[in-house]
Amino acid sequence: MFTFDSFSSRLVFSIIILIILLFIIYRFRTGKNTEKGSLAMMKERLEKGEISREDYDEAKRRQGK
């Protein structure tokens, strides 16, 4: 029969923490891609004349670009 000793408990706990961290990093990185997409959409709206250059510059500034 398998029993959890101190090492096994730490190993399971470490694996769970690693999975959670990887998930958080993945979500953070995919969130950055959507910001680039929104800036691209603002640029398209600028080119169509739907927004002014000042509106585009403000959106760009808000995203830290």
Keywords:
mainly alpha
Shape: rod-shaped
Helix content: over 70%
Structural class: mainly alpha
Distance between the first and last residues' Cα: 58 Å
Radius of gyration, CA atoms, in whole angstroms: 22 Å
Unreliable stretches (pLDDT < 50, length at least 5) are none
The helix-strand sequence is HH
Q: Major β-sheet, in short? A: none
Number of helices: 2
What kind of oligomer do you see? single chain
How many extended strands?
A: 0
What fraction of residues sit in β-strands?
under 5%
Nearest-integer average pLDDT: 84
Structure description:
- This protein is an all-alpha fold and 65 residues long.
- It is built from 2 helices and no strands.
- It has helices at residues 6-48, 53-62.
- Helix 1 (6-48) runs antiparallel to helix 2 (53-62).
- It is rod-shaped.
Summarize the structure.
By secondary structure, this protein is mainly alpha-helical. The chain has 2 helices and no strands.
List the helices and strands and how they pair.
Layout: H1 6-48, H2 53-62
Helix pairs in contact: 1-2
